[in-house]
Amino acid sequence: MSDTPASIMLVDDHPLLRKGLKQLISLEDGLEVVAECSNGVDALAKAEELDPDLIILDLNMQGMDGLETLKRMRDNGVTSRIVMLTVSDADEDVVTAITNGADGYLLKDMDPELLLDQIQRAIEGKMVLSEAITEVLATALRRPSAPTASKLDGLTNREREILELIAKGMSNKVIARELDISDGTVKVHVKHLLKKLGLRSRVEAAVWMVNQDQ
Amino acid sequence: MSDTPASIMLVDDHPLLRKGLKQLISLEDGLEVVAECSNGVDALAKAEELDPDLIILDLNMQGMDGLETLKRMRDNGVTSRIVMLTVSDADEDVVTAITNGADGYLLKDMDPELLLDQIQRAIEGKMVLSEAITEVLATALRRPSAPTASKLDGLTNREREILELIAKGMSNKVIARELDISDGTVKVHVKHLLKKLGLRSRVEAAVWMVNQDQ
DNA sequence: CGCAAACTAACCCTTTTGGGGTAGTTTCAG
DNA sequence: CTGAAACTACCCCAAAAGGGTTAGTTTGCG
């Protein structure tokens, strides 16, 4: 062990969870939480400013989500080890996270003691993955590239965004106002996303999407 | 204040969140966490055994969810005050929770200090609701439509049948062939069912329906 | 730098959708 | 028996959706 404690930054929009995590970490010698952020934007700034040893990053956040935050951090040259922390089930996001430079992917519902172990291991430079996750990753790697992460990945950000709005029942006009673009443009995106997904109408798209995220 | 501390039971399948909550509560005089459960089944047994003053119940749990647990507790004669705790946004579940006997509905992402206040108020016998929730409840009560009876019951058999096909993404023409009636007739049924459900398009209907049967 | 992709927007056109109406048949409760 | 409701089907019409094209701007990559 080194003489100075390892610095850890927490990014999660749930104050309670941050509190729990911080308290858990404080129990351990050699670990110190040097910053807490509740959103991606703050996290970006803090990460560059403090350059912590480890960043624990929530995947599901309001505004800029964890994956986006991760990507931007790496783009900005942040070299801290970054571990994604996420609720519940084995997401397909794990592949995206790893390819975008995450050093680990842990589930929030794991045993606290085990979580602490994993945090230690992450700081030591190892890649840490929850049990349930390793399988997902394994099967993902077994299939070299494509079929893993659903047809959603074939869509551009805008298309995915619009698909989500369609899945809320919105019309092109409403979506246009929501995104502040013309409804003609929305139609273009809808057209493209339908073609990419092999669907024939926005209704099919809505149903598909709603069933997609259970 | 009474002389013995108020007993609190935590039910949540996230150990971390339980930890954070427990730590938060321990800071407060007069409050004591007497039990923690990670699932609904355990919670049912513990609740009857310990009869705590307050049960804090996670809405989103694996297995038996919070609402089901709540209902069964009340069915079993548990008289503890029960406050639902849930992630993020203003669900419509709040109505179900309240009608099923919940004494409060709080969001996990609220400020910890405020949460503590609310817990105190709940123990004092008050109903506690997060800011965002009061609105939902208000609008829900403003429409005394049908608490449980679902708007589906207002539809005729044919309309319900067609709604289900819409929820599979089918167009009027396809539905017509499926049911062996003219597409003009399908349009009539769609028209009626949209009106009855207060929706503005088949997309909204599809989304509503898919979300309806989980 | 040059090129590809994404995003934007407009044009054209056909099909689909949804709202209004009338109207015939059947079925079922009062 | 009478009447209401459901189901059927058509009419008209305006709006929305979707498919095709062209085209300008920006962004990122080699």
Automatic annotation (TrEMBL), chains A, B:
Modified residues (4-aspartylphosphate): 58
GO molecular function: DNA binding
Xref: SUPFAM superfamilies: C-terminal effector domain of the bipartite response regulators, CheY-like
Domain of life according to the entry: Bacteria
HTH luxR-type domain residues: 148-213
GO biological process: phosphorelay signal transduction system; regulation of DNA-templated transcription
Domain Response regulatory: 7-123
Protein name: Two-component system response regulator NarL
Organism: Pseudidiomarina marina
Source species taxonomy: Bacteria, Pseudomonadati, Pseudomonadota, Gammaproteobacteria, Alteromonadales
